[in-house]
Design a protein that fits this description.
Layout: H1 2-13, H2 25-36, H3 49-59, H4 72-80, H5 85-95, E1 119-121, H6 122-136, H7 145-164, E2 170-173, H8 180-183, H9 188-193, E3 197-201, H10 207-219, E4 225-229, H11 237-248, E5 255-259, H12 266-272, E6 281-285, H13 291-297, E7 305-309, E8 328-332, H14 338-348, E9 354-358, H15 362-366, E10 381-385, H16 395-412, E11 419-423
Parallel strand pairs: 1-2, 2-3, 3-4, 4-5, 5-6, 6-7, 7-8, 8-9, 9-10, 10-11
Helix pairs in contact: 1-2, 2-3, 4-6, 5-7, 6-7, 10-11, 11-12
């Protein structure tokens, strides 16, 4: 595969003609996914028809993510060209009171682009649509009309996705825009039933979020990944019960993340207990634990990844656990003794490939008398997260801290080759 990778990278970087062997689509897709992580695939669309057919699904599986503002209207226009006559008429009719620029005639596009949609973030969708509305509007457009127009376009797009996006597997509920019309869409239940991943991230908790979650609890049975990170005030007893219902209704949960529950988390862990044979990743952040919850966590003996960050109530009883498959561990101890970190690493250090700390844990790993990383001979990666209670950490602070961490680890473990990186909002944020 390295041979083919070198050829593809060479072709993307040099405009010269290169004769490529024909690869099976499955292999081609895997190679292009690798290339996509390091460079843009847009230029490879023009290589030939076969390349184009393999690149387009990758570019359109989550087109809203990190889309430059200047390209927003192009993306939306392409989707709107995929509307059927009924959807196009409805869009034109609803927008006509506000602007008269909708002269798009549905036509056959080169690809059925909505078919490739695999993940959609409500926040990204609203951002791209709002940017498009600004592009359409002139100076005479009233400011209060713009959110209305955005809602019209979003509603029509969801009609399109409901009809065509049979590969949609992941939804991120991270914005509170109105969804009543979405709930009433034909086949919207079917669209949700095919999901494998659900994230609910720091969005105002309203009926616009509760309604889709109610539908998911009734119609989704095959969610593999659940991720709830809201502000602590949103975790009412009713919402905790809804989370528990969603968990119970699934056949096979392999990844679960929960954050910011100040009390009342026991029903969630009780529901999660039924997935102890399938759960491979558990991330718990800023959550008040109880002894019953810890006893349940100790039974998840299939875990590959465990994150316990800033959890109140975490006691030494967590050491009753048995995680023989554990490979990735992230611990931070604002609220509990660092002895737990030490004991955890003494028990599982030899099996770990990756370990993570918060920047406040520097003294734990930097003590000459307690070379904690020496207990982890097989780790290749060390991640440092940056969270400070009631404080904002700027880029310079993070950069300086990372220099300090790297220097200290080089000093203590000069023969080790570790990839040390920060977990921040640009890569992966546990805390938002």
């Amino acid at each position: 595969m390295r041979y083919f990778l070198n050829i593809i990278v060479s072709l993307l970087n040099k405009p010269e003609k290169v004769i490529l062997p024909t690869l099976p689509p499955e292999i081609m897709q895997q190679i292009l996914k690798y290339v996509q992580e390091t460079s843009s695939l847009h230029s490879s669309l023009l290589v030939n028809r076969y390349w184009c057919q393999n690149v387009v699904p990758l570019l359109w599986n989550n087109p809203f993510k990190q889309l430059p503002k200047r390209n927003s209207h192009r993306l939306i226009r392409t989707y709107l060209l995929c509307l059927n006559k009924e959807e196009n008429f409805l869009l034109d009719f609803n927008l006509k009171p506000y602007l008269n620029v909708m002269n798009l005639i549905p036509r056959r596009t080169l690809f059925e682009y909505p078919f490739f949609l695999n993940e959609i973030s409500f926040k990204d969708l609203e951002r791209v649509v709002s940017s498009t509305i600004l592009k359409w509007c002139d100076r005479e457009t009233k400011q209060e009309h713009k959110p209305i127009m955005a809602q019209i376009v979003i509603s029509i797009l969801f009609q399109l996705f409901t009809r065509m996006s049979s590969n949609l597997r992941s939804i991120i509920l991270n914005n509170g825009f109105d969804t009543p019309e979405l709930i009433n869409l034909t086949n919207f239940n079917l669209l949700l039933s095919q999901l494998r991943k659900l994230k609910v991230l720091f969005t105002p908790l309203s009926q616009n979020i509760i309604q889709p979650l109610d539908i998911i609890s009734s119609n989704c049975k095959d969610l593999r990944c659940l991720d709830f990170r809201l502000s602590s005030l949103n975790y009412t007893p009713e919402f905790i019960q809804l989370i528990s219902t969603i968990i119970k209704s699934q056949n096979y949960i392999s990844e679960f993340t929960i954050a910011n529950i100040s009390n009342g988390s026991d029903p969630i862990f009780s529901s999660l207990h039924s997935h102890k044979k399938s759960l491979k990743s558990l991330k718990i952040i800023h959550t008040q634990l109880t002894e019953p919850s810890i006893n349940i966590i100790n039974q998840f003996n299939k875990l590959h990844t465990l994150t316990l960050c800033f959890c109140g109530g975490l006691s030494i009883s967590i050491m009753k656990c048995n995680f023989p498959l554990l490979r990735n561990l992230h611990l931070s101890y604002l609220y509990y003794s660092s002895d737990i970190t030490t004991k955890f690493i003494e028990k599982y250090g030899k099996s770990l490939n990756q370990i993570g700390f918060n920047f406040t844990d520097f003294e734990v790993i930097s003590s000459n008398d307690n070379k904690i990383l020496s207990l982890c001979p097989n780790i290749t990666e060390l991640s440092v997260s940056f969270y400070a209670k009631q404080a904002t950490l700027d880029h310079d602070f993070v950069e300086n801290e990372m220099i300090k961490w790297k220097q200290k680890i080089d000093e203590l473990y000069s023969l080790r080759k570790l990839n040390i990186f920060s977990l921040d909002n640009s890569k992966e944020s546990y805390y938002y």
